[in-house]
Amino acid sequence: MAEPSTIARPYAEAAFRLADAQGKLADWSVALANLSAVAADERVRAAVGDPNLSDAKAAGLVISILAGKLSGDAENFVRVLAENGRLGVVTEIRAHYEALKNEREGTVEAEIYTAFEMNPAQLADLVARLEKKTGRRSASWAGFISKAV
Fold first, then answer.
1. Which of 22, 105, 118, 143 has the fewest other C-beta atoms within 10 Å?
2. Pairing label, strands 107-108, 137-138
């Protein structure tokens, strides 16, 4: 059986191409985050994995949980995933999508672990150095939280 990452790649690329063409990269990012959260729920996983549940009902379950949070295209995406038995790889699809989105936007995501909590000036300096080193900008350094580990 193929690796989940291999299975997820073409779906992520399709979602990315659609989102990019429509200028809705951020909207799809949110939709995939929501889908990923729902698909990760054990109750949803059990229901979707039930061989007695049709593909249409599996898609309907996910869509109903996210009522009002998915565009028509995103709902169709869920239906395609369900028809192909791929709802279980939504997390991997999201990861590939985010990598493509970051590449397009020239951004990078990073997790920073420090021994001591950093003040805002130290964090800003670190982010500036990372941006210089990578040649990319951070997605939103203001959203970083410095927490000592």
1. 143
2. parallel
pLDDT tens digit string along 58-114? Answer: 999 999 999 999 999 999 999 999 999 999 999 999 999 999 999 898 887 777 788
Is the confidence at residue 145, as pLDDT, over 60? no
21: left (phi over 0), alpha (psi -120 to 50) or beta: alpha
Sign of CA dihedral 12, 14, 17, 21: negative
Pairwise CA distance, residues 75 & 68, whole Å = 10
Helix or strand run (H / E) with residue 114: none
Q: Which residues neighbour 78 within 8 Å (Cβ) at sequence distance 6 or greater?
A: 35, 59, 62, 63, 70, 87
Confidence of residue 35 (pLDDT cuts 50, 70, 90): very high
Kind and range of the H or E run holding 21 = helix 4-22
CB of 26 closer than 8 Å to CB of 3: no
Record the pTM. 0.80
